[in-house]
Amino acid sequence: MPIPEVDKIWMDGELVDWKEAKVHILTHSLHYGSGVFEGIRAYETPKGAAVFRLTDHMKRLFRSAHIYHMEIPFSLDELVEATKVVIRANGLKSCYIRPIAFRGYGEMGLHPLGAPVNVAIAVWPWGAYLGEEGIEHGVRAKVSSFRRNEANSIPTAAKATGQYLNSILAKMEVIEAGYDEAVLLNMHGHIADGAGENIFVARHGSLYTPPTSSGALEGITRDSVMIIAEDFEIPCRERDLVRTDLYIADEAFFTGTAAEVVPIREIDNRAIGEPGPITKRIQGKFFQIVAGKDKDYDHWLEYVD
Ligand code: PY5
């Protein structure tokens, strides 16, 4: 899908024209995937555009950088402010936000510390990542034959650009086979996550999600759903899951910034069914919160103005 272009992108402290936001061909991270990034969303609320858990996302960016010995040449506060600046500059009411810190031009060896670290924040309007139909009626998922990166090989605790090769292989495989999204197992055969989402299973009134040690990213939406579940007094536990836990699930759903909360209606050609009561309750609450319609969760919204 083409990216809807807007006016400005924030790059290394300045707003530059969308078309001028370029890098050199010998950018280290273009060759070796040595960048770290975030995916964040801003939503339209009665008080204007609000970024969902902006500071938490930026903190994760710094954690990802820390894992890779990457010194981001801006503070947390500066990147939080820059995000608001670039949303304002483009006059967007809601958007997807893509901060990236990457090793730039200046070193072509594998020891990367000689390369500068560049930082950019791009924003653009982005609709439902897995489709409106998916949000309403659920998506068809398939377990990929590609296993999730082992957490001690390419750390899944980081959100690094290079590790997404793993997701891309899984995604291409299942899309070509006619499904909407991939589920990845780790090297031990336990479910890790979706190609770009965390995963939850509901059974007998309880929710289960794979632990981060399985190779799942510490998702901000995952964390939000766990907190919402607690408020609803729906038991929610981190537990190792195998693929048949999906086959016999009462309900299942993906969570992620791009995807939001998306029911899974079918897995490996086995019906789970239309979105069930737990999924609908959590999904409904999530969309209320991000739209600024739930006072109890207002602290998750960081207003642009
Ligand atoms: N797991 C993986 C592998 C992810 O890529 C993502 C986010 C998540 C889980 C969910 O994390 P969070 O809830 O913090 O967003 N994926 C990115 C996103 O912006 C990129 C998707 C194309 O949603």
Automatic annotation (TrEMBL):
NCBIfam families xrefs: ilvE_I, PRK06606.1
Keyword presence, Ubl conjugation: no
Enzyme Commission number, as recorded: 2.6.1.42
GO molecular function: L-isoleucine-2-oxoglutarate transaminase activity; L-leucine-2-oxoglutarate transaminase activity; L-valine-2-oxoglutarate transaminase activity
InterPro entries referenced in this protein's UniProt entry, alphabetically: Aminotrans_IV, Aminotransferase-like, B_amino_transI, BCAT-like_C, BCAT-like_N, BCAT_family, Class-IV_PLP-Dep_Aminotrnsfr
Family per similarity comment: Belongs to the class-IV pyridoxal-phosphate-dependent aminotransferase family.
Cofactor: pyridoxal 5'-phosphate
Organism: Candidatus Solincola sediminis
Catalytic activity: L-leucine + 2-oxoglutarate = 4-methyl-2-oxopentanoate + L-glutamate; L-isoleucine + 2-oxoglutarate = (S)-3-methyl-2-oxopentanoate + L-glutamate; L-valine + 2-oxoglutarate = 3-methyl-2-oxobutanoate + L-glutamate
Enzyme superclass (EC): transferase
GO cellular component terms, semicolon-separated: cytosol
The protein, known as: Branched-chain-amino-acid aminotransferase
Any Pfam family hit: Aminotran_4
Keywords on record: Amino-acid biosynthesis, Aminotransferase, Branched-chain amino acid biosynthesis, Pyridoxal phosphate, Transferase
GO biological process, one term: isoleucine biosynthetic process
Function: Acts on leucine, isoleucine and valine.
Pathway entry: Amino-acid biosynthesis; L-valine biosynthesis; L-valine from pyruvate: step 4/4; Amino-acid biosynthesis; L-isoleucine biosynthesis; L-isoleucine from 2-oxobutanoate: step 4/4; Amino-acid biosynthesis; L-leucine biosynthesis; L-leucine from 3-methyl-2-oxobutanoate: step 4/4
